[in-house]
């Protein structure tokens, strides 16, 4: 194995060369969130002496099984609370400042990892000359449990902000341009990108954003809801009545596995038909309706001059439920309707946004164009996704041709702020132009029925 070193402001980092690219895995961007820091906002990483070895395998945050295993299949990775790490794939660590693409994975705020083989940035880095950064963040109750005196319940979201600060301060050492950073996130990562557009502390940390299948119909928890869901976890853990100090101590010392098991019990207890929101997700007061959240994010993007791509898959909910018409209602309510409402709000605020829908799916697949199907296409990682049920039976040549088209648009957007594939793709306006990615791709006008509706109130989960 050929190794290379990058000299960062925090210390030297050793990576490995493979396929003409340099790969660094497991670089800390914050202090380990353990002990008193378990539920707290991330603390900046402490510089190190010597050379940090970043040539190992991926670490993921503690987590249970994926809720979407029936669509995406299994993955593996060493689980550790010391997980606040980034992976970097770069053409070189020389002088040129290349566009940077920062990946925020999905997984329902409860599973996934930034350095999985699924999200290998090699194809994007090689084809586009970009630097790809994958981010781990805390999941489930470790990321989103409100603990009085220890954390407000938004640690996982603030992890992402801290990772972007690391990019700002260190990415030039890996050949990247800190003034040209594109965040691209899927599902939970897309919703967190939406939320970051409303956060003053995230302003200036990224300059473009691609939101893939953000569940825009899901609102962050209010402080009151977060306290209620925390109490449910305490009950599931079997805690007696404790004062705040004793409770905080118990939660800090509790094995991570017990917290995750208790959170799954709470999720089962609170699940409702047609709902997609887990009990532990970011906490943010002030968003009493979906319109308020989408409008705030749209204003944030327009005021900061952040161009956007936002899109969904045609059959999002088939990865979560089987059968019609429930899947169509869920897709429209939680994904498609809010995505277009957000795009309309961005355009009305004077911002730039492009909208897409993925219609392609393997012939005769019962999962259709389901949630997560765009991931192997965006990353060009067909081999890593080979066992995923959602792409079973796909024609390899057809899949790669569409993947190349999508990658071309994403890479052009990262470099220039505009998608620039082989097909014209106009900005979103009142005519709702939408790029349809399929075996025959192209823009259609107003792809939504006039009756399109979505959940507008607080946690209107039922069908």
Short description:
This protein is of the alpha/beta class and 463 residues long. The chain is built from 12 helices and 15 strands. The strands form 2 sheets. Strands 1, 2, 3, 4, 7, 8, 9, 10, 11, 12, 13, 14 and 15 form a 13-stranded mixed β-sheet that branches. It has a two-stranded parallel ribbon with strand order 5-6.
Number of β-strand runs: 15
CATH class: Alpha Beta
Radius of gyration: 21 Å
Structural class: alpha/beta
* CATH fold title: Rossmann fold
Q: Secondary-structure element order, as H and E?
A: EEEEEHEEEHEHHEHEHHHHEHEHHEE
Q: What's the average pLDDT?
A: 94
Q: Looking at this structure, what is the CATH superfamily?
A: Alpha/Beta hydrolase fold, catalytic domain
Number of domains: 1
Please tally the helical runs, counting DSSP H or I stretches of 4 or more residues. Answer: 12
Largest sheet: 13 strands, mixed
Distance between the termini: 54 Å
Question: What fraction strand?
Answer: 15-25%
- CATH architecture annotation: 3-Layer(aba) Sandwich
Low-confidence stretches: 459-463
Query: What is the 3D shape?
Result: globular
Helix content: 25-40%
């Amino acid at each position: 194995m050929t190794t290379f070193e990058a000299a960062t402001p925090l210390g030297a980092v050793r990576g490995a060369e493979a396929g003409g690219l340099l790969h660094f895995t497991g670089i800390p961007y914050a202090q380990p969130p353990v002990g008193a820091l378990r539920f707290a906002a991330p603390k900046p990483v402490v510089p190190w002496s010597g050379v940090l070895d970043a040539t190992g395998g991926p670490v993921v945050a503690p987590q249970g099984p994926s809720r979407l295993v029936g669509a995406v299949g299994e993955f593996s990775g060493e689980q550790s609370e010391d997980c606040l790490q980034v992976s970097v794939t770069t053409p070189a660590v020389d002088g040129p400042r290349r566009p940077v693409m920062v990946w925020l994975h999905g997984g329902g705020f409860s599973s996934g990892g930034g350095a999985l083989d699924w999200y290998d940035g090699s194809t994007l880095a090689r084809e586009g000359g970009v630097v790809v950064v994958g981010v781990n963040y805390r999941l489930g109750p470790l990321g989103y449990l409100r603990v009085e005196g220890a954390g407000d319940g938004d640690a996982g979201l603030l992890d992402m902000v801290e990772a972007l600060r690391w990019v700002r301060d260190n990415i030039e050492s890996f050949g990247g341009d800190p003034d040209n950073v594109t965040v691209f996130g899927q599902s939970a990562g897309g919703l967190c990108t939406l939320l970051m557009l409303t956060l003053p502390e995230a302003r200036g940390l990224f300059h473009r954003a691609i939101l893939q299948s953000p569940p825009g119909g899901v609102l962050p928890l209010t402080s009151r809801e977060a306290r209620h869901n925390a109490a449910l976890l305490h009950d599931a853990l079997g805690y007696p009545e404790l004062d705040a100090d004793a409770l905080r101590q118990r939660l800090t010392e509790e094995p991570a596995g017990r917290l995750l098991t208790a959170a799954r019990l709470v999720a089962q207890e609170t699940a409702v038909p047609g709902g997609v929101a887990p009990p532990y997700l970011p906490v943010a007061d002030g968003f009493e309706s979906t319109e308020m959240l989408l409008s705030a994010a749209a204003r944030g993007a327009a005021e900061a001059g952040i161009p956007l791509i936002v899109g969904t898959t045609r059959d999002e909910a088939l990865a979560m439920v089987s059968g019609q018409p429930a899947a169509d209602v869920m897709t429209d309510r939680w994904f498609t309707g809010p995505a277009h409402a957000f795009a309309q709000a961005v355009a009305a605020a004077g911002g730039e946004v492009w909208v897409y829908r993925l219609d392609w799916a393997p012939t005769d697949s019962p999962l259709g164009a389901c949630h997560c199907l765009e991931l192997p296409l965006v990353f060009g990682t067909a081999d890593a996704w080979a066992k995923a049920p959602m792409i079973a039976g796909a024609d390899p040549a057809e899949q790669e041709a569409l993947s190349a088209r999508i990658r071309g648009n994403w890479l052009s957007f990262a470099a220039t702020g505009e998608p620039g594939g082989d097909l014209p793709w106009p900005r979103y306006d009142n005519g709702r132009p939408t790029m349809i990615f399929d075996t025959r791709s192209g823009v259609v006008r107003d792809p939504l029925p006039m009756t399109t509706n979505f959940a507008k109130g607080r946690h209107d989960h039922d069908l």
